[in-house]
Specification:
Radius of gyration: 36 Å
CATH class of the largest domain: Alpha Beta
Structural class: alpha/beta
Strand content: 15-25%
Number of domains: 4
Protein name: Transcriptional regulator NifA
Largest sheet: 6 strands, antiparallel
Helix content: 40-55%
Organism: Caballeronia udeis
Keywords: Activator, ATP-binding, Coiled coil, DNA-binding, Nucleotide-binding, Transcription, Transcription regulation
CATH topology of the largest domain: Rossmann fold
Number of strands: 17
Distance between the termini: 79 Å
CATH architecture of the largest domain: 3-Layer(aba) Sandwich
Shape: rod-shaped
Pfam families: AAA_lid_14, GAF, HTH_8, Sigma54_activat
GO biological process, one term: regulation of DNA-templated transcription
Length: 515
């Protein structure tokens, strides 16, 4: 009991098991007479082992204590993981007497006891000692106590291994964060160093000083708004207004008044005049997101504004001159829309002066680690949490196909931070957070194929940006719309894209059939 009390008093006082193991061997000798105790541990990545901790052995004896797998009593315990008791070392031919010469031991019968040290269900070492046979205390009592000590040694070694693994993971995260901060592209708030991303940033910087219209192309969730803001910040207009507008979110009847403003009395309720977004963006930049959703009537008026540099308020008679840099964005194939008559050809050519293609997250997998670390740091700060991802968890994120691109990754990280039950998450821990919808299909086929939904909803993979409607828009039943919405997690924009419809068409059909 005294021995256990003394040893346990040391546990927790030091992160290293070294002082505990040394005191354990010391007390084994002083209190129990179990002499020349040693802890033998495996060499990293090798089949050999050596004495790492000892009491009652000289430095030369410790140095000689090296064993191959299965060699002698110690090597046999390492290989088999079973307790071995040699009642008389002189009568045991396999006893090596390598560390301590027989001439330096007492002349009477000497026993040798060797117990496996197990950590993580694997034999990692041996706790061994000499015992004089003439002791009055029962051998079974000594073996029982040694079993307790060997179990404790295994737990201490396992804790040390876990701590080292966590430390390595944190060091990797710190290094990744340092690289992200040092990245020159991060000055616009754009994180990543993949070749496709750097090429897009380079094109952005080359045209930043001009006033030509820029068209940002790419899948949904690739960061078009961030690129539009970066273009504004890199331009001479950086100190002026930056106005962002989502064309898919404006009702068709309000488009003109929102973009160009209105005069007093222009319509019922117009008690005062109001400047539109183009006026407010004068001398600055205006970002029209999802420009493919703009009605044809408004496309004509937008083209006139771009060509002449003037706007006319709704209900007004005078032209107002504006100096605005237009940045437009779409996930649609505008050329296909032009061929179908859904988008004006002359406006397309006016917008497509400088097209910049933004890469999807699947095309910049090397940036996923830095992006995930950035999002988890932000989510921890906002939600006052302390959740971390190990190197294995970050590697698992890199393997996922990310059909929703950066937006999906950011949402997943926030969900992980809010729902995590432990501070450090391994790859297996984050598996339950990955979207279940089409997970197996996505990873087997490298992208969204539509095979995980009903045939009536299947569309082309995301690399084909052109959206070809499945028949006529009014041919979709309410069940088809509802199922598409379920497949997209309630996101009407994605459900509309899945069916080859605009958001406005989806909303109209949904309300009409839902009545």
């Amino acid at each position: 009991m005294l021995l256990l009390q003394q040893i346990m008093a040391l546990v927790g006082k030091n992160l290293s098991p070294l002082p505990v193991l040394r005191e354990m061997l010391h007390l084994m000798s002083e209190l129990l007479g179990l002499n020349r105790g040693r802890v033998v541990l495996r060499d990293d990545g090798a089949s050999t082992s050596r004495i790492r901790h000892a009491y009652g052995l000289t430095a030369q004896e410790v140095e000689r204590g090296k064993y191959a797998e299965g060699e002698g009593i110690t090597g046999r315990v390492l290989r088999n993981g079973q307790l071995t008791i040699v009642q008389d070392i002189d009568a045991e031919p396999t006893f090596l007497a390598r560390a301590v010469e027989r001439s330096k031991l007492p002349p009477g019968p000497v026993a040798f006891i060797a117990l496996p040290i197990v950590a993580g269900q694997r034999t990692v070492g041996v706790l061994a000692c000499h015992r004089i046979r003439t002791r009055t205390r029962a051998l079974a009592d000594d073996v029982t106590l040694l079993r307790i000590l060997a179990t404790l040694a295994g737990q201490l070694l396992q804790l040390e291994a876990n701590l080292q693994e966590k430390t390595r993971s944190l060091e990797q995260q710190n290094a990744a964060l340092a690289r992200a901060l040092e990245s020159s592209s991060a000055r616009y708030g754009i994180i990543g160093t993949s070749p496709r991303l750097l090429r897009a940033i380079s094109e952005l910087e080359r045209v930043s000083d001009s006033s030509a219209s820029v068209l940002l192309l790419g899948e949904s969730g690739t960061g078009k708004e961030l690129f539009a803001r970066a273009l504004h910040l890199a331009s001479p207009r950086r100190d002026k207004a930056f106005i962002k507008i989502n064309c898919a979110a404006i009702p068709e009847t309000l488009f003109e008044s929102e973009l160009f403003g209105y005069e007093r009395g222009a319509f019922t309720g117009a008690a005062t005049a109001r400047a539109g977004w183009f006026e407010q963006a004068d001398a600055g930049s205006i970002f029209l997101d999802e420009i493919g959703e703009m009605p044809l009537t408004m496309q004509t008026k937008l083209l006139r504004t771009l060509q002449e540099g003037t706007i006319t308020r709704l209900g007004g008679k005078r032209e107002i001159r504006v100096d605005v840099r237009l940045v437009a964005a779409t996930h649609r194939d505008l050329q296909t829309d032009v061929a179908r008559g859904g988008f004006r050809q002359d406006l397309y050519y006016r917008l497509n002066v400088i097209p910049i293609q933004l890469p999807s997250l699947a095309e910049r997998r090397g940036d996923i680690r830095e992006l995930a670390l950035h999002f988890i740091s932000h989510a921890n700060q906002v939600n006052q949490r302390n959740v971390n991802l190990t190197a294995g968890a970050l590697a698992r994120l890199q393997q996922y196909s990310w059909p929703g691109n950066i937006r999906e990754l950011a949402n997943l990280i926030e969900r992980i931070v809010l729902l995590a039950e432990q501070p450090f998450l391994e790859a297996a821990d984050i598996e339950r957070f990955l979207p279940r919808e089409g997970r197996a299909v996505l990873e087997a086929n490298g992208g969204f194929t539509g095979r995980n939904i009903e045939p009536a909803l299947a569309v082309a993979p995301p690399q084909h940006v052109a959206l070809r409607p499945y028949g006529r828009v009014d041919s979709h039943s309410f069940d088809v719309l509802r199922h598409a919405l379920q497949q997209c997690g309630g996101n009407k924009s994605r459900a509309a894209q899945l069916l080859g419809m605009t958001v406005r068409q989806f909303e109209y059909r949904w309300k009409k059939l839902g009545q």
